[in-house]
Write a sequence for this structure.
């Protein structure tokens, strides 16, 4: 006897698995919790399999549930593709994309240009802010996709790149030699406590010479040789890396990561995420090729 999967119930199952709960899934699917629960029960009964482990405080997948999740994602993606093509529906909507201001360049303009060409009727709201603020937006469901710069990314983040974390100052500047070391940072910058802790551990006294909400104010102060600043290599165009020869602490590398809300405006958010991932992957491939060429020269 031919049996058919209920795609509506399957969509509820996949959404529950990806959001981690019936409540969140119901909100995303615009259904009641009881409706989602009934669909899950109906799906389990049709397959004669237990898909969710409800013995703990949260919801976990059984081995059969994990298997179905893999199939379910592919089935729903194919279903949605067929529906769009057969009904000739143009993509419309809005995506909120959060990026820390210091990593907007070099990749994001090209990614946005490519995405806009592919989806001209989709509006992208680009939010440039600090990593912690972007993570709060994401947690509140107010951003579809964000990039972060941090040394300890949270679970679920997709690692895009690892970047050297270096001391920067004015060209030919001498501020890095002063003690206490004068620092310039935005008040909410995630790098600020990392730099301060590194200096404390190295026994180097420091003081905050410049505190501002404006990145431009901080950069102008650094360019004037009023202070120094630890940040991602290559993100401050008018400054230079300080050749401190070990007099300042060597900083651990930082990661650029990406977080995508499960099922948010799918497949639009996933397509945008793939374009971002491809841009960073191409950057890494280019860097590897340059390294190989320099070694062979």
């Amino acid at each position: 006897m031919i049996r058919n999967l209920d795609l509506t119930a399957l969509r509820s199952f996949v959404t529950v698995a990806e959001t981690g709960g019936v409540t969140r899934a119901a909100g995303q699917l615009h259904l009641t919790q009881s409706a989602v629960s009934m669909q899950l029960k109906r799906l389990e009964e049709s397959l004669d399999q237990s898909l969710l482990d409800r013995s703990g405080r949260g919801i976990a997948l059984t081995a059969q549930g994990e298997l179905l999740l893999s199939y379910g994602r592919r089935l729903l993606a194919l279903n949605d593709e067929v529906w769009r093509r057969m009904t000739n529906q143009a993509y419309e909507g809005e995506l909120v994309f959060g990026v820390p201001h210091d990593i907007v360049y070099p990749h994001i303009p090209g990614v946005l240009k490519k995405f806009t060409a592919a989806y001209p009727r989709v509006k992208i709201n680009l939010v440039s802010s600090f990593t912690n603020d972007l993570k709060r937006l994401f947690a509140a469901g107010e951003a579809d996709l964000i990039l972060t710069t941090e040394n300890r990314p949270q679970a679920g983040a997709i690692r895009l790149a690892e970047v050297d974390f270096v001391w920067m100052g004015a060209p030919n500047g001498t501020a890095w030699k002063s003690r206490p070391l004068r620092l310039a940072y935005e008040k909410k910058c995630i790098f600020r406590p990392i730099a301060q802790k590194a200096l404390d551990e190295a026994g180097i006294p420091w003081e905050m010479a410049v505190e501002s909400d404006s990145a431009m104010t901080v950069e102008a102060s650094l360019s004037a040789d009023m202070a120094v600043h630890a940040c991602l290599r290559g993100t401050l165009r008018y400054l230079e890396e300080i050749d401190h020869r070990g007099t300042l602490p060597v900083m651990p590398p930082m990661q650029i990561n990406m977080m995508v809300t499960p099922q948010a405006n799918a497949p639009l958010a996933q397509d945008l995420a793939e374009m971002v991932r491809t841009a960073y992957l191409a950057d890494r491939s280019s860097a590897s090729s340059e390294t190989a060429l320099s070694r062979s020269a």
Observations:
- The longest strand covers residues 93-100.
- Confidence is low (pLDDT under 50) at residues 285-297.
